[in-house]
C-alpha cells in the first residue's frame, strides 16, 4: 500500500516538468525510484533483522580480535590495525569470515523478491504505465539495494576501525586505511554478486519463494557442498606418493582452479591478500621461488596486483549476472494483473 | 913480628875495602836491614775498570825497640782513589812493638775510564816501601749503556710493538736519565718501568734497569721497516739505540653501492643494473679481486668487469652489476648477497631486492572488465528505452 502511494506521486512530478526536457526528467525519475527503494529497504523489518544479525556477529568478531590482540598473539607488530579484521582468539570466527558467510545472505535476502513481488502484486504494470523507462526500474532496484548494502558494509567497517583505534591506541597508516577501504569495496562487490544473482532469480521465477530458495540453494551449495565435492575430486585425482614434482604441482593447480570457481573462495583470497600484507602468493610455491625470499610486507600496489584476477572475476561475475537479469527482464512481457 | 903486623894491616885493609865496597854495592841491603818491613802476599793483581782491589798489609818490626812509622801512598796516575785503614779508621801513622807486627788494609778503586796496562803504586811506612802493581786487562769506560735484546719486531699496522730495553749506568755516580724517542710523525712511543709510564729513570752506579718501550704505529701506516731511535740522556752521559718495527701490510676490502643504498627494485623477469664500488681499505695492495653473487634460484648477476686485476691501498674501483631476476619470482623482497673476494679478504654487500610483478595481467583484467561493461552497455542500447 505504501508503495502504491509512492508511485502515485510520480505523475505530479511529470506534470511539473517541461515537455522539452524529457531526458533530465527521466533520470530524475530514476533517482526518485532509487530514493524510494532505499527508504523502503531501510524501514523494512527484513533489513532490520539482517542488520541485527550482522551487527551482533561483527561485535562478536571484534571482541574476539581484541581479546587476541590483548593476549599478544598479534605477531606482526606493524599491522595491528589490519589484524582487527583478521585475528580471532578461537572462540568466534573473525570479521572477514562473518562477512563472507553472512554477506551472501544479505544479498539474497534483499534481492530475491525485487521483481517478482512487484509483478505478483500488480504494482509492476502500474509502474510501467507511468512515463518512465522500463530499464530504469531494474536499474533502480539494483542501485538502491547496492547503496543500502554499501552503507551497511562501510558503517560496519568504520565501526570496527573506530574500535580498533580505541583498543590499539595509534592511528593506522594511510596504506592500512586504503587496504581496509579496498577490503570493504571488495565486500560490496561480493555481496553485489549475490544480490544480482537473486535479482536474476527474481526475474526468472514468478514465485518469490522459488527465487529465494534458488538463491539460498546456490549459497548453501557453495558454502557447504562445494567443499565436499572438491574433497571427493581431490581424493580421486590425488597423485601417488612416488609421483614427480610436476604431477603434484599440476594436481595442486587443478584443485586451486576448481576451488576458485566458488565466489566465496575468490572473496577469501582477495581479503587475505588485502588485509595481510605479508601474503606474497596465493598458489603453491616451489622451492625455487622461496630461496632468498625475505619475509616482508608487500606494498599495496603489489598486493592489489596479486589479487587482481580474483577481483576481476568477482566484478565480471557480478556484471554478467546483472546483464543476464537485464536481458531477461527486458524481454519479458508485463501484463497487468488480471 | 913484622910479618904478623903486615898480615894484620892487609887484613885490616881488606876489611876496610870489604866494608866500604859492601856499602857501595848494596845500599838496599842496608835498608833491608832496617828494622821495619811492609809485607803483603799479592803484590801484582789483575783488576777490571770500576773494581776495587783490597790489600791486607802487615808492618813488621824486626828491631829491638818499638818503632813509629808514617804511612804514605805514592800514586803515579790520576783518577785512582785509595784508602788506607786500620782498626776501622783511616790511618796516618802506625806504631809497632819490637818483634811484632800490625796489619792495615788498603783499598784501591780502579777508575771506570782507564786505559789498559800496568799501573804501579807504592805504599810507604817510614823508610819501608811496598811496591804494588795492578794490571788493567781491558779499557774502562765512563758511559751509560742502553741495550735491547730483540730490537726488531714485526707486526700488523694495528698492533703495538713492545721492546724491552736494559739501561746500564757505568759511571761512578747515580744518574737520572730522561727518556726520549725520535719517532716518525704519527708514531707514539711509551716508556714504562715496573708497570708505570715514565719519562725518566734513575739508575745507581754500575746497576741497570729494565725499561719497556711500546711503539704504536699511526692508523694509516704503510707497510715497511721503520727505525725509531730511542735515547736515555742527561747532561753528563747519554745512551742510545735504535728500535726497528717492521709493519706488514693489512688487507682490507670494502664493497658498497655507488649511492650506498642497499636496496633495489626489479620487475619479475626483468633486469636492473647497480653501480658497485670496491674499496681497498687495507694498507697492502690487493690482487685479483673477483666478484661473485649469492642469488635466489634462477637469478643471475653479471659483473662488468668480472675481476679487478689489482687495487692499490686507499683506491676504489667501480663495477657494474646487472641483476636479472627469475620469471617465477614472487612479488616482495629477496635477499641478494654480492661479495668481492681476494685470496686474503672478502667483503659482502647484502642487497634487498624488491620484486614487482608484471602488470600485464592487471591490464588483461581491466580489459576483461571493460569487455563485460561493453557488453552490458550493448544490452542497454539494444533493449533499453523501448
Task: Please provide a written account of the structure.
The complex is a heterodimer of chains A (338) and B (386). By secondary structure, chain A is mainly alpha-helical. In chain A, 76% of the residues lie in helices and 0% in strands. Chain A has helices spanning 2-8, 10-16, 22-43, 45-70, 80-86, 95-111, 116-121, 123-128, 134-168, 174-204, 208-237, 245-259, 263-275, 287-290, 300-331. Chain B folds into three domains: 28-136, Immunoglobulins (Immunoglobulin-like, Sandwich); 144-247, Immunoglobulins (Immunoglobulin-like, Sandwich); 256-360, Sandwich (Immunoglobulin-like). Chain B contains three helices and 29 strands. With 386 residues, chain B is mainly beta. Classes of the chains: A mainly alpha (338), B mainly beta (386). The A-B interface holds A 133-135, 280-281, 285-289, 291-294, 296, 298-299, 302, 305-306, 308-309, 311-312, 315-316, 319-320, 322-323, 326-327, 330-331 and B 295-299, 326, 328-336, 352, 354, 356-357, 359, 361-362, 365-366, 368-369, 372-373, 375-376, 379-380, 383-386.
Gross morphology of chain B is rod-shaped
- Give the tally of β-strands of chain A: 0
Terminus-to-terminus distance of chain A: 18 Å
- CATH topology of the largest domain in chain B, what is it called? Immunoglobulin-like
- Give the mean pLDDT of chain B: 83
How are strands sequenced across the largest beta sheet of chain B? 1-3-8-5-6
Q: Which of globular, elongated, flat, extended, rod-shaped describes the shape of chain A?
A: globular
Give me the CATH superfamily of the largest domain in chain B: Immunoglobulins
Taken as a percent bin, the fraction of beta residues of chain B is over 45%
The chain-level mean pLDDT of chain A equals: 82
Give the end-to-end Cα distance of chain B, rounded to a whole number of Å.
Answer: 215 Å
Query: Using only CA atoms, what is the Rg of chain A?
Result: 23 Å
Total strand segments of chain B: 29
The DSSP helix count of chain B reads 3
Structural classification of chain A? mainly alpha
How many helices of chain A does DSSP assign?
15
Assigned CATH architecture of the largest domain in chain B:
Sandwich
Pfam family, one (chain B): NPCBM_assoc
Transmembrane segments (chain B): 360-380
InterPro entries (chain B): A-galactase_NEW3 (IPR018905), Ig-like_fold (IPR013783)
Domain Alpha-galactosidase NEW3 (chain B): 267-341
Amino acid at each position: 500500500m505504501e508503495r502504491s502511494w509512492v508511485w502515485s506521486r510520480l505523475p505530479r512530478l511529470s506534470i511539473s516538468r517541461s515537455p522539452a526536457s524529457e531526458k533530465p526528467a527521466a533520470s530524475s525519475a530514476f533517482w526518485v525510484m532509487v530514493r524510494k527503494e532505499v527508504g523502503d529497504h531501510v524501514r523494512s523489518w527484513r533489513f532490520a533483522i539482517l542488520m541485527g544479525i550482522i551487527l551482533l556477529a561483527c561485535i562478536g568478531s571484534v571482541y574476539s580480535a581484541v581479546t587476541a590482540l590483548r593476549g599478544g598473539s598479534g605477531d606482526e607488530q606493524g599491522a595491528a590495525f589490519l589484524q582487527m579484521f583478521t585475528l580471532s582468539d578461537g572462540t568466534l570466527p573473525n570479521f572477514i569470515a562473518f562477512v563472507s558467510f553472512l554477506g551472501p545472505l544479505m544479498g539474497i535476502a534483499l534481492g530475491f523478491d525485487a521483481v517478482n513481488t512487484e509483478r505478483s502484486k500488480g504494482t509492476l504494470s502500474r509502474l510501467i504505465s507511468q512515463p518512465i523507462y522500463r530499464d530504469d526500474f531494474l536499474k533502480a532496484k539494483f542501485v538502491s539495494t547496492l547503496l543500502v548494502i554499501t552503507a551497511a558494509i562501510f558503517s560496519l567497517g568504520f565501526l570496527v576501525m573506530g574500535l580498533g583505534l580505541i583498543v590499539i591506541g595509534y592511528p593506522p597508516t594511510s596504506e592500512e586505511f586504503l587496504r581496509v577501504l579496498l577490503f570493504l569495496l571488495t565486500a560490496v562487490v561480493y555481496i553485489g554478486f549475490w544480490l544480482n544473482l537473486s535479482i536474476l532469480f527474481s526475474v526468472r521465477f514468478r514465485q518469490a519463494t522459488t527465487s529465494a530458495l534458488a538463491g539460498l540453494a546456490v549459497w548453501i551449495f557453495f558454502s557447504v557442498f562445494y567443499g565436499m565435492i572438491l574433497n571427493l575430486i581431490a581424493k580421486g585425482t590425488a597423485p601417488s606418493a612416488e609421483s614427480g614434482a610436476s604431477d603434484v604441482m599440476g594436481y595442486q593447480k587443478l584443485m586451486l582452479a576448481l576451488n576458485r570457481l566458488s565466489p566465496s573462495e575468490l572473496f577469501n583470497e582477495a581479503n587475505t591478500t588485502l588485509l595481510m600484507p605479508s601474503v606474497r602468493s596465493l598458489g603453491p610455491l616451489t622451492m625455487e621461488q622461496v630461496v632468498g625470499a625475505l619475509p616482508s610486507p608487500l606494498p599495496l600496489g603489489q598486493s592489489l596486483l596479486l589479487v587482481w584476477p580474483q577481483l576481476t572475476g568477482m566484478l565480471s561475475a557480478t556484471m554478467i549476472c546483472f546483464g543476464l537479469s537485464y536481458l531477461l527482464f527486458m524481454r519479458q512481457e508485463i501484463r497487468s494483473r488480471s | 913480628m913484622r910479618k904478623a903486623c903486615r898480615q894484620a894491616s892487609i887484613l885490616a885493609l881488606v876489611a876496610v875495602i870489604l866494608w866500604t865496597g859492601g856499602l857501595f854495592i848494596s845500599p838496599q841491603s842496608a835498608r833491608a836491614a832496617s828494622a821495619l818491613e811492609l809485607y803483603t802476599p799479592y803484590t801484582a793483581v789483575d783488576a777490571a775498570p770500576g773494581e776495587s782491589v783490597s790489600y791486607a798489609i802487615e808492618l813488621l818490626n824486626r828491631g829491638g825497640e818499638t818503632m813509629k812509622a808514617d804511612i804514605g801512598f805514592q800514586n803515579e796516575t790520576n783518577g785512582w782513589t785509595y784508602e788506607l785503614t786500620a782498626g776501622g779508621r783511616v790511618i796516618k801513622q802506625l806504631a809497632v812493638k819490637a818483634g811484632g807486627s800490625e796489619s792495615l788494609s788498603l783499598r784501591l778503586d780502579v777508575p771506570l775510564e782507564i786505559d789498559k796496562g800496568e799501573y804501579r803504586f807504592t805504599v810507604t811506612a817510614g823508610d819501608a816501601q811496598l811496591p804494588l802493581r795492578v794490571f788493567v786487562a781491558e779499557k774502562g769506560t765512563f758511559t751509560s749503556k742502553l741495550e735491547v735484546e730483540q730490537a726488531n719486531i714485526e707486526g700488523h699496522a694495528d698492533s703495538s710493538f713492545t721492546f724491552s730495553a736494559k739501561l746500564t749506568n757505568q759511571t761512578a755516580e747515580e744518574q737520572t736519565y730522561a727518556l726520549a724517542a725520535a719517532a716518525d710523525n704519527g708514531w707514539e712511543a711509551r716508556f714504562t718501568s715496573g708497570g708505570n709510564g715514565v719519562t725518566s729513570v734513575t739508575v745507581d752506579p754500575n746497576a741497570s734497569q729494565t725499561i719497556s718501550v711500546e711503539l704504536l704505529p699511526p692508523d694509516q701506516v704503510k707497510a715497511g721497516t721503520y727505525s725509531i731511535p730511542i735515547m736515555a740522556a742527561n747532561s753528563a752521559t747519554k745512551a742510545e739505540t735504535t728500535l726497528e718495527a717492521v709493519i706488514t701490510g693489512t688487507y682490507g676490502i670494502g664493497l658498497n653501492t655507488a649511492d650506498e643504498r642497499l636496496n633495489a627494485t626489479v620487475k619479475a623477469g626483468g633486469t636492473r643494473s647497480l653501480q658497485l664500488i670496491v674499496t681497498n681499505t687495507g694498507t697492502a695492495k690487493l690482487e685479483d679481486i673477483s666478484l661473485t653473487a649469492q642469488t635466489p634460484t634462477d637469478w643471475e648477476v653479471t659483473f662488468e668487469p668480472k675481476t679487478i686485476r689489482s687495487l692499490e691501498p686507499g683506491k676504489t674501483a667501480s663495477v657494474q652489476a646487472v641483476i636479472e631476476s627469475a620469471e617465477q619470482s614472487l612479488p616482495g623482497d629477496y635477499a641478494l648477497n654480492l661479495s668481492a673476494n681476494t685470496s686474503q679478504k672478502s667483503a659482502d654487500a647484502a642487497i634487498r631486492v624488491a620484486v614487482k610483478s608484471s602488470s600485464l595481467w592487471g591490464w588483461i583484467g581491466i580489459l576483461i572488465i571493460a569487455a563485460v561493461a561493453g557488453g552490458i552497455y550493448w544490452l542497454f542500447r539494444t533493449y533499453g528505452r523501448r
